[in-house]
Each structure stands twice: as C-alpha cells, then as structure tokens.
Amino acid sequence: MSAIEYTLAYITPYIAMAVLLGGVAYQVRRWLQKKPATVHLSLFPRPQGKLGRVLDALVDMFTLKGLFKVNKPLWLAGLVMHVGLLLLILGHIRTVTDFYFLWDWLNWGSEETHLFSAVAGLIAAILFTIPLFYLLGRRWSGSVKILSTPEDYFVLFLLMGIAFTGSHMRFLRPDLDQEAMRQFMQGLYAFSWKPFPVNDSAGSAGPAFIWHFALVQMLMIYFPFSKLMHTVGSFFNKMVMRS
Q: What is the tally of structural domains in the chain?
C-alpha cells in the first residue's frame, strides 16, 4: 500500500468526518445566534401551531413545492436527483450494518439480496446522475450562465465524479467482494482497521474505490462551507417563514 492510499484509507476519513460535523454544528450555531428579522416574512395563511409549522416545512422541503410553482423543469430535476440521493444513502447504510430484519421477513438469501441490491443501486444511480447533466447544461446557457460561479461547476463535477466512480465499482466490477468492503468501513467506524479493499486480485474494489473514497471525503470537508448547506439551512428558513 502506498503512502497516499494509507492516508486516504486510515487518516483523512477521520479528518473529513470531524470537519463535516464540526462545520455543520458551527453553521447551525451561527444561524441560531442571529437576531430575528425586523420585517414581516411570514407566509399566509401560515400553519397553526408549532407542530403544524414543522410538518408543513418538512413537506415543502421534501416535495420542493415552492420550486414547482416557479420552475417546473428544475423542480423535476431536483426532485429526481434528491430521490436518487436518498436511495443511495439508504444503500450505503449497509456499510455499517445490514437490513437483516427485512431480508428475514422477505425470506431472502444472499442471492436474492445481491440481485435486489444491484437493481436498486442501478435505479438510484440513474436517478441521481441524469439530473446532474441537466443542471450542468442549464448553467451553460441563458441567464443562469451569467449568474453561475466556479463553485457551481465545481459542485456539479464533484458530484458527477462520485457518481461515476461509485457506478464503476457497482456495475463494472461484478466480482467485487462486498463483505470485504463492509468490514473495511465498519473497521473505520470502530477504530479497528481492516485491510484496504484495493489490490490486483479478483474481488477487490479496484482503483475506482480510491477515487470514490477520496472524492466523498472532499465533499464532506467542502459541505459545511458551501451552498450545499441549503439541505440543512432550508429547514430553518422555512420555519422562519412560517413563524
């Protein structure tokens, strides 16, 4: 294992996680310390009660209904991409544990589970990746191009890189040893390091995992200080508008 692989496998993941959690906590703390706006920003009619405001804000956040009224093509692309992202996050939970209760309930063995994972992974990858091309093309034309900044392109290319390297492991490495991948990730969480699943033998993740893992860590470090924080800040914003 090279020094770069060792660093990316056993050192920078902890740095990336610390920056992600610390950065998000810092940004949320800054928002909570801000004084309330002196102007009236409430929606009308606003939901009654705190629970009603929370539920309405969550519905708005997950359905993007506000964007639907303004730009339907962008709403569709954003909704599809976020659905794909949600499915990918659920799939990556299997790096920590597995949905044993679900497989037992369905009476599925390893073959059925692997097939379902492959099909669900393909659908999630398509749902997440295709809208990225639309969003990138949208920034290369019209008035949006004038408003676009290097950061906007960087985020899109970073997400594309993560999607492509992840898809490469999933669909171009059918002999991938998923159990070795799971053991490696669980070892990181438990501070009990396992062998890095990248070598020249059959069943390894291949170089795509190095790139995928490095890009994900880059995203984790970049996230708290980027426009991507809207995924967290949008809830606070919507609650203010309904207060």
A: 1
Calculated CA dihedral for residues 165, 171, 172, 174, nearest 10 degrees: 130
Q: Work out the angle at residue 110's Cα, subtended by the Cα atoms of residues 105 and 114, and round it to the nearest 5 degrees.
A: 100
Model pLDDT, residue 43: 59
The percent of residues in the chain predicted with pLDDT above 70, rounded, is 85
Which two tokens mark 8? 């990316």
* Structural tokens at position 221: 């470090």
Query: Residue 45: is the preceding peptide bond cis (ω within 30°)?
Result: yes
User: Residue 17: is its pLDDT beyond 70?
Assistant: yes
- Cβ proximity of 95 and 185 under 8 Å: yes
Q: What is the mean pLDDT of residues 27-49?
A: 71
CATH of the domain at 112: 1.20.950.20
Please report which helix (H) or strand (E) contains residue 36, including its range: none
Whether residue 200 is predicted with pLDDT greater than 60 in this model: the reply is no
Residue type, 85: L
Domain that residue 60 falls in: 3-241
pLDDT at 48 > cutoff 80: no
What CA–CA distances, in Å, run from 74 to 151, 154, 160, 188, 228?
19, 19, 18, 38, 16
